[in-house]
Every structure is written in C-alpha cells, then in structure tokens.
Amino acid sequence: MPDSDRDIVVMTGIDKSFPGVHALENVDFSLARGEIHALVGENGAGKSTLIKILTGVDRADKGTITLDGQSVSPRSPLHAQELGISTVYQEVNLCPNLTVAENILIGRQPSHLGVSINWKALNARAREYLKELDVDIDVTQPLGAYSVAIQQMAAIARALVISNAKVLILDEPTSSLTTHETLQLFKVMRKLKGEGIAIVFITHFLNQVYEVSDRVTVLRNGLLVGTYPTPSLSRLELIRLMLGRSITVLDDMTAHKMESSHHIAVESLLEADDVGLANSVEPFDLSLHAGEVVGIAGLLGSGRTEIANLLFGIDRPDIGSIVMDHKPIKDFSPHASIARGVALCPEDRKVEGIVADLSVRENIILALQAGQGWFRRIGTKEQYEIADKYIKLLSISTPTADQKIKNLSGGNQQKVILARWLAANPRLLILDEPTRGIDVGTKADIQKLVLSLAEEGKSCVFISSELDEVLRTSHRIVVMRDRAKVTEFSGQVDEKGIMQAIAGSAS
Amino acid sequence: MNVSFARTWSKLTESMLFLPIAALLMIFAFDLIAIPGFFRLELKDGHLFGSVIDVLRNGSPTVILAMGMTLVIATGGVDLSVGAVMAIASSVACIMINPTITGMALTDPGLFLKDPQYSWAPLWMVIVVPLIIASLCGMWNGMLVSYWRIQPMVATLVLMIAGRGIAQLVTNAIKIIIFNDTYAYLGNGWIILPFSLYIAAAVFLAAWLLTRRTAIGLFVESVGINFRSSYYSGINERRIKLFAYTFCGFCAGIAGLIATSAIRTSDANQIGLYTELDAILAVVIGGTLMGTGGRFSLLGSAIGGLVIQATITSMLSFGVPASAIIAVKAVVVIVVILLYSEQAQKFIRGVGSVTMRGEAAR
Description:
Chain A is α/β, with parallel strands linked by helices. Chain A has 18 helices and 22 strands.
C-alpha cells in the first residue's frame, strides 16, 4: 500500500509500449526512504524501461509517479536530477582524462568571485565528499588512473553532490567489480541508506540481492510479479518468480528428445579440460558429443556467454586446454573456429550478429564465404539458391533475398543469423540465447530445429535464460552460477534440482 | 507523371550512381550553354583533342587514387597520405632512371642527356620498384590502423607529413629531370586517347575484378558496416583493412608515376599535392559514406573523380583564374555535403512519392 510517510517514490499503473513491444503493463512500484530495493528480472522483463521512465529518459504512456507525495513527471535525466533522482549507470559515464575532483564537481565548481575556478576549494570539497563514502584517494589524479570501483564511487559521489539526491539508482553497478570492490560498494550503499537515501539496486547476481537489499521487486515480460521483503523470500522461490516456471511441461518434444538420445556418439567431439579465464569464468570441464544437445542454464551473468566465447575462440583461455579431434586448440579466433567446424550464434544480435546494411542474402552467406576465403567467391546464382533455401526452411518473412536485413523484424533477423550458421554447415553449433525477443511460435520452431540438427549428427550447445526451453531441447544440462560451472544433469532431469542448482541453495 | 514514373524515379534515386551521374550531367549542361566549343573534338596526328579529353586526361590520376581510397573509406577509414606516397613513388622512379645525383659514377655521365632511351635501371624495374614501395607505404598505414588500432586520420597523417620528407631524401632534395621518352609516355602518350586514360581504365577494371569477382568487396563492406559482426562471422577484419590500405598505396604509386612522367621531373614538393583531398571528395561524390563506410561503388567514385575534374576544366574554360579554382572546389564540397544530407535525400526521393500521392488522389 502506498504510504507517503514511508514511501518516497510511488509509481502506479505504469504502462509503456514501443513499436511492436508492450514493455511495461500496469506496473506498480514503490520505494521507501532509507531502503535498498533490488529490481530483478531476466532480459526484456522491463527493468530498464521502468528505470528510464523514473529518470526521465522515456515517458510513460499511462500511470502516475509521485515523489515525496507530489505528482511528478520527469521530462529528462537532467530534470529527474533536479527532482532528486540520480542514476549511476553500469558503464561509468564520466571523463577519464579529467581529475577525480573535476569529475565530481564539474558544473558545480567553487570559484573566485565567479570568474576563475578555486582549485583548492574544488579539491578539498571533492576529497570531503569521497571521505563520506570512505574513499581516501588523491583527487587531483585523472579518474582513468583508478580502478572501476573507485570510478564507480566517484560517480556516486557526483550523483549525490549534483542533485542532493534523495533517490539513487544503481544500474548493475557490480557487473565489472571484483568481490572486494563489491563489498566496498555495499558498505557505501548501507551508509547512504542509513542517511535516509532510497536506493534502487539493479543486478543479475542473486546472492548480492540477498546480501544487501531489504526488498525485492520482480518483473517478468513487462508485468509486475510482485514486491517482497527479501529475507522472507527463498532463492528458489525468487528464481521461480523470475523465470515464471514451476512445473515441467512434458510434451512430445521431450519424448522425441529421449528417443534421439540413442544417436549420441560415444566419442567426444570437443573436450574442455579445466578451461577458464580470469575475470570471465572459473575453470570448468565440458565434453561435447556429436548428436547431442547440451543446454547451459543459469541466470544472466552466470558465465553462460563466457563459456560460449571460449569455445568459439572469441576469448583465449588462460588456463586449461580445449581438445577437438584429438588435437589441442592453439589458434583462438572465430576464423579458426569456423575452419574447425565450430559456429556461434551470438547473444547480442544487433552488435555481434547482423550486418545491418547488407542484404538478407549477403548476411546468410557471410560465414560460409568467410570460411572459403577471399578468392573462392560463392557465385551470385549459388548465393541466391542458398538464401532462398534457408528463407524457405526457416520461413523467414522477407519480400526478397535482396532486402536489407535491418528492415526485417527482430525474430526474422535472428532466423537470418541462424541461417548464416546453418549454411556454414558446422559440426558444433553454439546458440547463445537464440530465441530472445522472438514470438512463441518461432521459439518452438527453433527448438525443434536444434533437435533435428542433433539428429543429423551435429553437436549443439543451447544457452537460454528460459529454463523450460533448455529442459525441452537438451540431452544434458550444465548449470552455471556466479561465473562457474556448478553441476551437470543428464538423463531424466528434474526441474527442481536444476532450479536449486541455479539458486545455489536447497532452501 | 504516373505511378510507373514514380516507381522508376524511386529506383533511380536509390541507386548509388544517381547523384554522381546527375552532377556530371549538370556540369556538362552548363558547359553546353555557357562555354562554346567545350564539346568540340579535333583529331590531330591521330590524337583526339578537346576540353572533354582534357577532363578525362587530367582526371585520370584522381580516378586512380579514388579506386584505392574507395576501399579504405568503405572499411570506415581514410588515407591522407596518398599525395605523399605519389611523391615517394615518383622520386624513386626518377632516381632509378638517373642516379647521378647520388654520386654514382656513370661510365658516361652525359649519356642520359644524349640518349632519349637511356635509363640506369631497366624500365620495367623503374615501374615495378616504385609500385612495390608505394604498396609498402600503404601497408604501413594499414598496420597502424588495423593492428595498432590507431585512428585512420592520425595514422595516415604520419606518412602524409613524413612522406614528402622521404621523397626529398631519395633525390637529395634535387628535382631530377627525366629525358627518357619511353617513361614520359605514361603521362604524355596518346593512342587516339591519352595513354593515362587507359591506365585509369585498367586500374578501375582491376579494382572491380579484385573486389566484385572475389569475396573481398563483400568483406570490405561488411567490416565497414559492423566489424564485430564481421569478426564473429569469421572474417579476418584486420587483414581486410590491411589489404584496403595496401591497395590504396599501390594506386597512389601508379598515380605518382603518371604525374612525374607528365611533367618529366621528380618534384617532391609539388607532385600529388592536395590530391588526397580530391580523392576523398571523389569517393564521397560517388556515394560511399565517409566515416561510417559500408556500401561502396567503384564506378561512382570514378564518376566522382571526373565530376571534380570537369568542374575545374569548365571553370578554367569559363575564365575563372587558376588561382581561384580552390574556391570553386570549396563550393563543390559544400554542394556535395548538402546534397548527401538526409533531408536532401528525402526531398529528392520525395519528388517521386509526391507524384505517386497525387496520382492516388485523382
């Protein structure tokens, strides 16, 4: 219940649509004075949209926001700041080549009679603000000289100074911090909380939710699932709320899958032995077989994508060895991986997948052509044949193969990227979130496709944050948590066990 | 005006070649009205002469440079050093024909004055060695940009400044005069049309075959549009860039040989001066996007090169003093920037859609 004495921010009935997406639907959110409020949900749940509305980046289509009992509608991030709502983003957006003090006080610099900057006072004040956050550093050094954690602190100090903030929003502040730095940040957060500042804490790390937050709000697919006092919500329950699954739906696909598991080759195609990379993923073992789909389950940031990047050669492991065809891999690059018959359909479609201004045809043949080299060009006629084949096979909806891929819908773009990798005819296909932002029907199509690829003798790695999807398609499931492989399930897997493994507790 | 016109119009205006061709036609239309005799052709001793021929002849080096520059710009970069590389190539060629200034004792020091065929090094080497050196210069740029990740503008600025110094060093800062008639043929010869025009055509054809008959063109465009996606797709994005800059250096070498042959002198200060700007302008007129890269059109760039030269020749014929030509170029730059702006593009395309709407209303 909204309570204007306790609550500083009350958002009611927030509704927001973007072309083709209903990002938020009738969402209520309230933030109490002096609390740390975690906001969780998988990708596309609506967390960032909600924050954008609160900070004036986007305007809500419907709904009201009150701040301190007064109705407000932030028009821009600057306006929100003036109202007392400050945000510190995931990537520190300060100027690394200015000094720490300049960064904190820029725009508010003390001056001599309003003419020249009073550097002494500037530095003294900056030092003072940082001291309040228990950070004692030389503020006359460029910001870039310090660790991300210190930069984060400077950003927080700036947020507090600039707006005299009553509400502080931390958008995934810990994603690039070490454990020690994270603890330091939590200390600051608790201190601010003690001073009555309300903090919204967005994170993908559930243990951090439990460590620092008082309440937690869960969003899923643009809908509010609920707000709960953190201590009274079990981890398992929280994950269930985030993923929206509780019972296993056994359908014919599962039966089909069981049947196809007889085709799995005994000999492994790829063997990762104690492979890891510092600051990316803890050492893990993994063996992949022809004819098998291995699912990787875990929350976002749990190390799923990091595994994919190591297997595909985007990253080079600093420990352990990956053996393929009985030969240890030495050459880590996408180019070399494709030559070995490994393909990765990357997570970020826009940045790592599509080449926006090229046609659907060119996007489809790109990896195949890259594998063939510069001079053995695929003839134009053959290009059209390949493109038309996959447009039909994956029912890609495009007027012609010559349409620019950027003019297609997200789901169809994803299919084109899939087609790119199918056309390259890999032996090992790694799919990182292949169904994100895709309608339900297409999702099922892609899942079926993955199973049929395995039946053809390909080895597939299927990464998804949707647990039922992983369950339905995978013969074996690897569970990741906090950037480490936790366990592996094979045969008849039980959903509860996997959820517990994802959550990291039996409660 | 009907719907089919509107369709044809929209297809026409969406083509990358629409604006360069339209620009060339507009300049020629101006010439037709304002400059009597601009299109007159004369056949003297089996050589064609006339203002249009002048445009083609003088525009050849720009067109050649624009071929390499197109690929570089398509990868999202730029090469400011082509003018300096031209100077290096010409200095190397000249010193190989006549190395006396290096203090080398020739059996007969006056030989190169007496014998119009004299060259210290064989002529094929006089052509090949400068081209190799020019390509290496391009490769150097490519290394800086792709492997050391230096901004193209800064990386190529190094050679733009240092290149002329290198060219001076090669010839001891002396202008070497070339008496070899065969070498002079590159820039002065005619086979009905100027010989340099055939070289430009050959370079264009080679560039086209190299990019469009192989996968290189696709890779260049892909890298320019989204280098991360290209990398994830297995394209060696660094090698593609290295290739583009190397090819650009090679083209600059050819342009340098023609330029030095045309004036029969190695002039490290003057050869290729400001040509990098013409080459970039030609590519931009040709429709390849500066800065972002991506889709490119070699034919567009070639026409772009001719547009620049046609403007210069027309203005000179019209009576604009040579010293004011640089101001004319500035006007061209402004017009190009305006024409390629999003608003102008929308307006041009809009001409078609307005007629379509008008038709529908009726």
